[in-house]
Amino acid sequence: MNQAILIGGLPRDPELSYTPNTQTAVCRFTVAVDRPRRNGEETGTDYIRVVVWGRQAENCDRYLSKGSKVAVQGRIETGSYTNREGQKVYTTEVIANNVEFLSTRGSGQGASRATFAGGPDSPSMPVAMAETQETQGTAFSETQEIAGGFEDLPDSFQAAEDDMPF
What we know:
Blueprint: E1 4-9, E2 15-18, E3 25-35, E4 44-53, H1 54-63, E5 69-82, E6 88-101, E7 114-117, E8 125-127, E9 132-135, E10 138-141, H2 143-146
Parallel strand pairs: 4-6
Antiparallel strand pairs: 1-5, 2-3, 3-4, 5-6, 6-7, 7-8, 9-10
C-alpha cells in the first residue's frame, strides 16, 4: 500500500502550470511538516514536494499561499532525471488525491476549511459542511462566518442548508 497523509504549512506560494498537449493544470507546492522529537533530539522540519492535477490544482493555486495550512492525502512517487550538468537527480513527491485547506489567503490559521477531492482524471468539487439554525424566522448559516477568505469561490460551491444529523 502506498499512501501518505501530511499536515503542515506552505513555506512559499504554489506554482501552477499547464501540460503542453492537453492543457491539464498542474500545481506544485511544498509542505513543511514538523518532525516529532525523539529522546533528546531537536525537533526538525521536513519539506515535502506535492503535485496536484486538474481542477484541484487550479483551486490550490487560487486559494493557497505562503503560510497556508493544508492536509494532503496521496501517494508517494519517486523518479529521476539528468540535470544540465549530466548528473542524475532523484526525486520524491506526493501525488495528491485530496487537499484540505485548513487555512487560506486572508484567513487565520484553522479559521476555515474546505476540501477539494479528486485526482488527475476526476474534476474536483468543494465539500463544505455548515450548521444552520433558525434565528427569528430566518435561516442563518455559519458558513458565512467560517468561510472568511472564500468570498470568490466558484459558482459550483453550495453551502449545506439542511440540518446535519450530528
